[in-house]
Amino acid sequence: MVERPISVCVLCGLPAAGKSSLASVIVAEVKACGLADCLLLSYDDLIPEDAFQFPSETGSRPETLSLWKLYRHKLLEHLEHFIQNTARNSDMLDPEDGIDAIWKSIIHCLEEQNMISPDRKGVDACQYQINKKEGPLVIILDDNFYYRSMRYEVFQLARKYSLSFCQVFLECPFEVCTQRNSERTCPIPEDTLVIMRQKMEPPDPIKNSWEQNSLILQTHGSILEDIHKVITLLTTAMEHPEKQLEDNTEQLEIDRAICASNILHQSDQTFRKLVSQAMKTAKDNKVPSCTLKQLAEELNKLKIFFLEDLRNRIIQQGQSHVPEKEVAEQITAQFDEEKDIVLQKIMKNYSENPAK
Q1: Nearest to 139 by CA among 228, 251, 227, 10
Q2: What is the pLDDT of residues 293-348, one digit of tens each?
Q3: Cβ neighbours of residue 298 closer than 8 Å, sequence gap 6 or more
Q4: Residues 272/198/214/315 CA torsion (nearest 10 deg)
Q5: Residue 255: what are its φ and ψ, rounded to 5°?
């Protein structure tokens, strides 16, 4: 249990949906109405740019996926480190496993928002003074969070320390997001936006009990009405912090994680066999090496995409009655179909343009 009441609010939606603008207004209103102190953490500001190549540029660079996941995992680790210390109003040390780019970005953000003192203590300059404040703290996480499992990881953190948890999903027409994105200095590749829209999983409080404190806002709504709804959501969440897991429930989650790892490994092997079969078919049809390379890149990209989808589906099975094996079979069948489509498309292009 924490001493200082802390709430975590996940702000999610497609890129360019207006999340960052809404986040700034929420922070100002939360402070103005005296509800709580507020900390805004934007993933775009905290995670290095090379991580955002996922998922559109992973065709020939599968290591990008691991890097992307590693950065997100590290961010939550560092957030937990901050929560542990600020809850007790105690000074904070650098992480024991070393300082990385994510930690440096978080420290800069905490200093800017007056959460910690810029003056460090100690000979090694690795200790930070938490600015002791009375009253609750609301931490807003601004990111796409398009997979439900991404948000569930934040919920697990809140539950672990009996924090309050809620989420705000900003719904925006895809055409509007695309237009806004194109006007940015560093726009996200359009195929990435398309994939995110396809994989976007809005909150579903009816199906998932942990998503009870959720709010879906339309971008064309009144900003005053939206802020009022968000403040009401935050107030409700703060009154009902999450309860920690019982020991046996935690063991069930550990067992599920082991099972998920086994299923993912088996599925990865199955996907590799399907890819090998597709490559053999192309070779038997005298497809040239340059086209084979293109096919390999396309299929590898597809394999990574479907494995990530499977991983996130399995994580969510704690809230579903569908067996993990059945989910894996469904995803494998979908991958097989998409694999055939890619193979037929490339072979058709080659037959029509053999000179290439």
Answers
A1: 10
A2: 889 988 998 898 888 888 877 766 554 444 677 788 888 888 888 888 888 888 77
A3: 59, 342, 346
A4: -10
A5: -60, -40
